[in-house]
Write a structure and sequence with these properties.
Length: about 500
């Protein structure tokens, strides 16, 4: 294809007469000079070609909102569909207020002038079977000179009074090309009057014709910047309010999305497609942008519709989980919906978040842990330290703490010393518990390093013994009351001795 904005030179050995074609309204259009000249046929060479008039019954009031640019858009769409479907060449040229859109495909047949007739595949831009016909209607209504040359015929749209309908309607006037033209003419050529800006605006609807659109591909042929547009088979068909990205849809998926005017799209049909594109995007920029907007409570099209996690494969989920971890950190959990459980998680060093039902579900599906998953009892083994391997100072602290707790509260029972409780306590990464009551084993675990201090060891052992005796959890009213009861009992015991 060539689209250099220059007029194509006339073919060799074509005389001036061969470039003159009848314009039934205005005279003769000289397509070599792109000038309208007054019809002055020579008496010896009258134009005896038969003109066939095909009425359509279409009022010029139809698609009243369409302007010349929209008509040009439909002409260009038909051109691109022909090139793609028939794998043919073509060109778009402009000079002296006249544009020529030419493809080398099989050409139009008379039946294609009927509304609703379309033989295009699912990858075509146009799909209603109306675009070119309505473009011709608009150009005629706007008094723009236009001719369609194809398959030995010249087609001219005319708005004229219909006796049958008793009003103005669109008709197509068909006449044969001169034999010398018909013999070598291929494809379809549409010639029309417009401004350079109108042609440029018409091209702007199509990615292929707008090489300098400024499109930044985030996912090739699927997601791009700037946002807010939907493209079907390379043509802009509508806008999406508050959308971060633009979306590109090809094939059968786009058949039901856009309306004839390319101004609105069916959101119910669009949303599942976009949710799939987002789920499979594999663009960290796309994923991170959506997650940041969700975290900041920014209302966008993407945060509103979410993503289809069931469409994700293993690689997709890994990318989403990585983006979630980068945004929130490793020690962040989804709320359980229970204030008590969430408080337990926070006590263990985790940050607890809730993003609402939809996004909580999405984050869980891509691998973010919940409070319930994290704080349940762990079955991991820890490296134990035998009492005989403790230093003399460590053993002395251990024995003293055990005796004091037994004397003033209750016997701790079985106690195990470990180098670390990280794998068993469910603490956040980078945090470790000093002690742990494991009800399933009936055993208190204490971290070896606390045996350096009697005060810390006593605090930990008493804390875990209260868990053992009361069966209450950290950060609960019941546990806090149980600890207070220990202090009260010790004070009362001291008061009795004093009395």
């Amino acid at each position: 294809m060539t689209d250099n904005g220059n007029h194509t030179a006339p073919e060799a050995n074509v005389d001036v007469e061969s470039n003159l074609e009848l314009d039934l309204e205005s005279g003769i259009i000289d397509w070599e000079t792109h000038e309208l000249v007054e019809l002055k046929p020579k008496a010896s060479t009258p134009d005896e070609r038969k003109v066939t008039v095909i009425p359509t019954g279409i009022s010029p009031e139809y698609v009243k909102a369409w302007n010349t640019t929209m008509a040009i858009r439909e002409i260009l769409q038909n051109y691109l569909d022909s090139k793609d479907e028939f794998d043919c060449t073509g060109s778009i040229t402009f000079e002296k207020g006249l544009a020529k859109v030419k493809d080398d495909g099989p050409g139009l047949q008379v039946k294609h002038l009927a509304m609703g007739i379309s033989e295009k595949g699912v990858d075509a831009i146009g799909k209603f079977g109306e675009g070119l016909k309505l473009a011709l209607l608009v150009m005629a209504r706007e008094n723009r000179d236009i001719e369609v040359w194809s398959n030995g015929k010249i087609i001219i749209p005319v708005i004229e009074y219909s006796n049958d309908y008793q009003t103005d309607t669109l008709t197509f006037h068909l006449k044969d090309m001169y034999p010398r033209h018909a013999a070598k003419f291929t494809g379809t050529s549409i010639k029309f009057r417009c401004t350079r800006d109108e042609l440029k605006e018409g091209k702007s609807y199509f990615i292929e014709l707008s090489k300098k659109t400024g499109i930044e591909w985030l996912v090739k042929d699927a997601i791009s910047l700037p946002g807010g547009r939907v493209y079907i088979n390379g043509a802009a068909v509508g806008a999406i309010e508050n959308a971060r990205f633009s979306y590109h849809i090809r094939g059968a998926e786009g058949v039901t999305l856009g309306n004839r005017d390319r101004s609105t799209i069916d959101q119910d049909d669009l949303n599942p497609i976009v949710k799939r594109l987002l789920a499979n995007s594999r663009s960290m920029k796309v994923i991170s942008t959506i997650l940041q907007d969700m975290k900041d409570a920014r209302e966008t099209y993407e945060t509103d519709i979410g993503v289809n996690t069931w469409r994700m494969d293993k690689t997709d989920r890994k990318l989403w989980k990585r983006a979630v971890t980068l945004l929130y950190g490793k020690n962040t959990l989804l709320s359980s919906g229970s204030e008590e459980a969430d408080t337990q998680a926070q006590y263990r060093g985790f940050k607890v978040i809730s993003t609402g039902y939809k996004w909580d579900h999405i984050l869980k599906e891509v691998g973010m842990k919940t409070v319930k998953q994290q704080i349940k009892p762990k079955k991991k083994r820890v490296k134990l330290v035998a009492l005989k391997d403790l230093t003399m100072d460590e053993r002395s602290v251990f024995d003293a703490a055990k005796r004091l707790v037994s004397d003033h509260y209750a016997k701790p029972g079985r106690i195990a010393i470990a180098e670390s409780l990280q794998g068993k306590s469910g603490m956040a990464e980078g945090n470790d518990a000093a002690g742990l009551w494991c009800a399933s084993e009936g055993k208190i675990y204490m971290k070896r390093i606390i045996l350096r201090s009697l005060e810390e060891t006593l605090h930990t052992l008493l804390h875990e013994t209260v868990h053992k005796e009361t069966g209450t959890d950290d950060c609960t009213t019941e546990f806090e009351r149980a600890l207070a009861d220990v202090a009260v009992a010790i004070m009362l015991k001291g008061e009795k001795h004093h009395v």
